[in-house]
Hints:
GO terms for molecular function: lyase activity. Keywords: Lyase. InterPro entries: Vgb, WD40/YVTN_repeat-like_dom_sf. The structure is a single chain. The chain contains no helices and 26 strands. With 256 residues, the chain is an all-beta fold. The chain has a single domain (65-254), classed as 7 Propeller (Methylamine Dehydrogenase, Chain H). It has a four-stranded antiparallel sheet, with no helix packed on it. Strands 8-9-10-11 form a four-stranded antiparallel sheet, with no helix packed on it. The two termini are 15 Å apart.
Amino acid sequence: MWATLVHTGRVATVSGREFDLGAAQSRPSVIVDGPDDAVWFTRNGDDRVGRIGYDGVVTAIEIAGAPYGLCVGPDGALWCTLMSADAIGRVSVDGEVSTYPIGTTGAFPAMITNFGGELWFTLNQGNAIGRMDTSGTVTTYPLSTESTGPVGISAGPDAVWFVEILADRAGRITADGKVEEFALPAGSKPHAVAATADGGCWITLWAAGSLARLDAEGNITEQVALGEGSEPHGLALDHGSVWVALEKGSLVHLEG
């Protein structure tokens, strides 16, 4: 398991390996397993997407616009949100860079996921979910309430889950654009979401210092306290177990 150390410009593994990116201001953020024997991650502080090969070689590719969310797309390239550019970026494993405007100003695209052969992403200030095919054509799905602040997003087996940090809700959107929203504990400020194979999801409740599991109908079936001041952010699933990155500087492993 790999984790980004956003405040120190480093990337680390739970086995004890640590990689200094040589740029303290780089703010490594979202990290994913790449298609090419490497992990890839966004460097939100210095407009780059980074790569660490399984051989330990560290490289980076410039892409302007404050890259943040990241996923492997249906074409085998890395796709990222460009928060300050209102665009989605594409970086091939060979280093070719392309950008695609989302057509909305000030929308602040946040997280991104690959579902049904297309890219789905949250528009944090646009109060909507975006959808883009690999040619750059965008469809936008506005949310039912103003100023919900959608952040995390994750593709499930038959729909995409997302969370609304300002409205304390989880959402689910199907390929035909149908949106359902589910209430979470008041003041919990959900941040990240990871869909599960059974159609449900796990969600980090940042302000509540806890982790919640939802079933496919949006019911909370489990809640795990992570401690006062833990501020859970990053979230990943690994063969049925759950990993959570805490702002206080540690990882939590919840075994399946």
